[in-house]
């Protein structure tokens, strides 16, 4: 018998430390249950349930017909980088250099690049907890030490400047911020960001990654505070944004980032090494998204707002559940500590298996997520009502595990 038949390749140790996003596992489990004939309502996945607006789709189709099927510059097509800068100017009255904009295959790629570039053993990286799970996963992958910045319900799920600043040491290389936030829907008040930026003066070695992918998902007339508004940190700010959420384009795999001068060449080279460029017709779709009518965004956000009220009212009527009103994104993060369920992940699993409602346990977003579950309200009002009814019946009938 050949010995080669038993050879089992294995990756370097860093891959023992890489994590993942449980939302995809929940999506797979929900799909498997649906395939068995179960009626599953999915409030687990974080993507708009709207279709990409037709003019964006048409622009991408036209790009293919016009022959845009080859490689593009690795940082993205010039008109798109210029359109990103124009959009930022329109929305925030702030100038950014299109020459520092990098178009990437998904907002996630920017966090991958930033953490890879600044993380190494001995370095410390601060990240929000609960927060998007890929932050911690990538920090651990690089061998850097992940330092969670607790995101607390009593702070309206906003980032605490004082707490974050107190965690910075001389080994801190990067601080990650995310507002409006996943998974909590929290929005960090401007005063808190002012205080954080002021405190950074004492820590000139720290780079900031501001994940503003939900910047248009704000309610009650709230204005977005972008880190671009602080010229004093522009030389060390990586601004992450993209089209996935704003224009319902998650599957197109598109994002953009603004990079500071010192990190631009490294990210450009990483692009050349890893993905060459973003899919050319998708970039033309993205261009149409930024230069075309914006009513589609406002309409989608208005619909999310209606659902937000439905979800929060419904959750607060459930036994043992209390839900703060999320100010942004499209997630609710109810506190389930009064239900008797001490494990939010077990509750989320039981809700899926027994009540047919997919949600995500708070601990999938970090240790400080215990006691909460995340519901994405990217589903129809009708389905949200049905899901809340099922959750109510379940919580009344089933004793906590
Ligand atoms: N940042 C946050 C906070 C997110 O929630 C997500 C997606 O869920 C992303 C970034 C990544 O977005 P993309 O699909 O563009 O990679």
From TrEMBL:
SUPFAM superfamilies: PLP-dependent transferases. The keyword ATP-binding does not apply. It catalyses: L-aspartate + 2-oxoglutarate = oxaloacetate + L-glutamate. Its cofactor is pyridoxal 5'-phosphate. Keywords: Aminotransferase, Pyridoxal phosphate, Transferase. It comes from the Bacteria. Its EC number is 2.6.1.1. Residues 39-390 form the Aminotransferase class I/classII large domain. One of its GO terms (molecular function) is transaminase activity. CDD domains: AAT_like. InterPro entries: Aminotransferase_I/II_large (IPR004839), AspAT/PAT-like (IPR050596), PyrdxlP-dep_Trfase (IPR015424), PyrdxlP-dep_Trfase_major (IPR015421), PyrdxlP-dep_Trfase_small (IPR015422). Pfam families: Aminotran_1_2 (PF00155). PANTHER family: ASPARTATE AMINOTRANSFERASE (PTHR46383:SF1). Belongs to the class-I pyridoxal-phosphate-dependent aminotransferase family. This is aspartate transaminase.
């Amino acid at each position: 018998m050949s010995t080669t038949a038993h050879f089992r390749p294995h990756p370097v140790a860093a891959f023992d430390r890489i994590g993942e996003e449980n939302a995809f596992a929940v999506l797979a489990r929900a799909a498997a249950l649906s395939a068995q004939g179960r009626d599953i309502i999915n409030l687990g996945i974080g993507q708009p349930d709207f279709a990409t607006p037709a003019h964006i789709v048409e622009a991408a189709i036209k790009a293919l017909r016009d022959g845009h099927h080859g490689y593009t510059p690795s940082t993205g097509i010039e008109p798109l980088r210029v359109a990103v800068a124009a959009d930022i100017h329109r929305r925030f009255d702030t100038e950014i250099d299109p020459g520092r904009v990098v178009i990437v295959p998904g907002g996630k790629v920017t966090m991958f690049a930033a953490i890879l570039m600044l993380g190494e053993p001995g370095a410390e990286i601060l990240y929000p907890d609960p927060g998007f799970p890929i932050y911690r996963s990538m920090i651990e992958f690089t061998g850097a030490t992940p330092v969670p910045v607790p995101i607390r319900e009593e702070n309206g799920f906003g980032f605490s400047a004082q707490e974050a600043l107190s965690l910075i040491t001389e080994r801190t290389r990067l601080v990650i911020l995310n507002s409006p936030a996943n998974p909590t829907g929290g929005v960090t008040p401007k005063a808190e960001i002012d205080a954080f930026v002021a405190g950074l003066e004492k820590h000139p070695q720290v780079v900031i990654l501001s994940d503003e992918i939900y910047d248009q998902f704000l309610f009650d007339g709230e204005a977005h505070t972008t880190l671009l508004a602080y010229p004093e940190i522009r030389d060390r700010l990586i601004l992450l944004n993209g089209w996935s959420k704003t224009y319902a384009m998650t599957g197109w795999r598109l994002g953009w980032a603004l990079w500071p001068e010192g990190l631009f060449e490294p990210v450009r080279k990483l692009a050349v090494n890893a993905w060459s460029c973003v899919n050319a017709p998708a970039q033309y779709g993205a261009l149409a998204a930024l230069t075309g009518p914006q009513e589609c965004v406002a309409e989608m956000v208005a619909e999310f707002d209606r659902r937000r009220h439905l979800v929060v009212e419904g959750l607060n009527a459930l036994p043992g559940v209390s839900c703060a009103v999320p100010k942004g994104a499209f997630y609710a993060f109810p506190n389930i500590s009064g239900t008797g369920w001490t494990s939010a992940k077990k509750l989320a699993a039981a809700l899926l298996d027994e009540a047919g409602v997919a949600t995500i346990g708070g601990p999938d977003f970090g240790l400080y997520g215990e006691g909460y579950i995340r519901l994405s309200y990217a589903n129809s009002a009708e389905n949200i009502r049905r899901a809340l009814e099922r959750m109510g019946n379940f919580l009344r009938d089933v004793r906590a595990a």
